[in-house]
C-alpha cells in the first residue's frame, strides 16, 4: 500500500529525505536507495539540521559558532574535514539556515551532485514537516510506516525506559503527520509500508524508484548494512544484513504483553485501520488493564515534564548568551 502527494522541481533541490517514526526501517530504506548510481547517500543522520534550528532559528547570525559546532559534530561525514567547512563559510557574516545547509550539501557532495541527488535520513524530520518543507521546499520526502506493535516492540527493546503509552502516541503522531501538515508545506511526500518492503521488496522498490523518476535495478536489493541488534534483556550485538530480513515482521508477537497490545490498538486503531493493520484485540480484564495504564501515564507525565523544563531553561539561556550547543555523543547505527 503506497500513497503519494505530488510536487517536484530540480537538482540539490531534488533532495530525497527518508523519515518515519524511529525504528520503522528508515535505515534499511536508506541503505537500499543509497546504492543507486543517481543517489548520493549522506552516511549518517544529519541531526545537526534540527539542532541548529533550535539554537539559531531560521537565520544564523553567529556563523562562527555554527560552523564550529558543525565541524565537531559526530555525524559530520569523515570525508568532510573541519578545514574544508571553514573555507566554505569564510567571508560570510550571517546566513539563512536554508542557505547554510545548501552550502553544507554543496561542500559535502561537491562534483558528485552534478549527477546525483542527495539522500538524507532522519526520523525526526517527520515531526518537523513545516520546518523541513521551508528548508527543502522542492525535496521528496519518503515516509516509512511500520505496524505499530512491531515498531513499539522495537522502540521498547532499544530504549527500555520508554512506556507503551508514550511510544503508541508517538507512532500515531508520526504516521498522521503528513495528513496534518500545514497546506503551505510544499514537500512531495511518498508513503510506503515497511512490511511491503520486506514481503515484496522488488515490487516495492521498483515502484518507489518510479515515483522518484529513477530507473530500477534488482541489484539495489543486494546490499551490505551494518547495524546493531537489540533483544529484550540482552546485550546489543553487531549484525550485518545483505538482503531484507523477513524474520523481523512478527517478533513483537513473542515479546509484547496482552496489556501492551490492547493499549497500542486502543490508541492507534484509526490509523491502523487506514494502513491495513489488523487488530487482534487480546483479552485482558479491566481491573488489570487500567492500573497499568495509570502507572504508565504518570511515569510519562513526569518524564515529559522534566524534558520540557530542561529544553525551556536551555532556550532561555541561549537568549541571554548563556550556554552553547552541546556536542552530542554518536549513537550506534540502528535499523
Can you describe this structure in just a few lines?
The protein has 335 residues and is of the alpha/beta class. The chain is built from 12 helices and 10 strands.
Task: Explain what you see.
The protein has 335 residues and is an alpha/beta fold. It has a single domain (2-319), classed as Rossmann fold (3-Layer(aba) Sandwich), CATH 3.40.50. The chain is 46% helix and 13% strand. The chain contains twelve helices and ten strands. It has helices at residues 26-34, 48-56, 63-72, 82-89, 97-109, 129-135, 148-158, 164-180, 194-199, 201-211, 258-275, 286-319; strands spanning 2-5, 16-19, 39-41, 59-60, 95-96, 117-121, 140-145, 188-193, 225-229, 237-241. The strands form three sheets. Strands 1-8-7-2-6-3 form a six-stranded mixed β-sheet. Strands 4-5 form a two-stranded antiparallel sheet. The protein has a two-stranded antiparallel sheet with strand order 9-10. Helix 8 packs parallel to helix 11 (258-275). It is globular and about 70 Å long.
Amino acid at each position: 500500500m503506497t500513497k503519494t502527494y505530488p510536487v517536484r522541481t530540480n537538482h540539490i533541490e531534488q533532495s530525497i529525505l527518508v523519515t518515519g517514526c524511529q525504528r520503522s526501517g528508515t535505515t534499511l530504506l536508506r541503505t537500499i536507495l543509497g546504492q543507486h548510481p543517481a543517489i548520493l547517500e549522506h552516511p549518517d543522520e544529519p541531526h545537526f539540521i534540527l539542532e541548529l534550528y533550535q539554537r539559531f532559528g531560521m537565520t544564523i547570525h553567529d556563523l562562527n559558532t555554527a560552523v564550529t559546532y558543525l565541524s565537531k559534530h559526530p555525524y559530520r561525514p569523515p570525508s568532510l574535514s573541519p578545514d574544508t567547512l571553514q573555507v566554505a563559510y569564510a567571508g560570510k557574516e550571517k546566513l539563512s539556515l536554508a542557505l547554510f545547509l545548501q552550502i553544507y550539501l554543496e561542500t559535502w557532495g561537491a562534483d558528485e551532485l552534478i549527477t546525483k541527488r542527495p539522500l538524507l535520513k532522519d526520523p525526526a524530520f517527520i515531526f518537523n514537516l513545516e520546518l523541513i518543507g521551508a528548508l527543502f521546499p522542492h525535496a521528496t520526502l519518503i515516509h516509512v510506516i511500520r505496524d505499530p506493535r512491531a515498531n513499539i516492540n522495537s522502540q521498547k527493546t532499544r530504549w527500555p525506559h520508554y512506556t507503551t503509552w508514550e511510544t503508541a502516541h508517538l507512532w500515531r503522531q508520526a504516521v498522521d503527520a503528513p495528513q496534518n501538515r500545514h497546506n503551505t508545506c510544499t514537500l512531495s511526500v511518498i508513503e510506503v509500508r515497511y512490511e511491503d518492503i520486506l514481503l515484496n521488496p522488488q515490487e516495492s522498490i521498483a515502484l518507489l524508484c518510479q515515483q522518484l523518476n529513477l530507473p530500477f535495478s534488482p541489484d539495489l536489493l543486494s546490499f551490505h548494512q551494518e547495524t546493531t541488534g537489540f533483544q529484550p534483556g540482552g546485550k546489543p550485538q553487531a549484525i550485518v544484513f545483505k538482503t531484507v530480513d523477513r524474520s523481523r515482521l512478527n517478533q513483537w508477537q513473542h515479546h509484547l504483553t496482552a496489556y501492551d497490545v490492547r493499549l497500542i490498538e486502543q490508541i492507534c486503531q484509526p490509523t491502523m485501520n487506514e494502513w491495513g493493520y489488523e487488530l487482534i484485540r487480546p483479552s485482558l480484564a479491566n481491573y488489570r488493564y487500567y492500573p497499568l495504564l495509570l502507572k504508565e501515564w504518570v511515569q510519562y507525565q513526569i518524564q515529559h515534564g522534566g524534558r520540557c523544563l530542561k529544553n525551556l531553561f536551555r532556550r532561555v539561556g541561549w537568549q541571554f548568551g548563556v550556554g552553547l550547543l552541546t556536542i552530542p555523543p554518536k549513537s550506534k547505527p540502528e535499523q
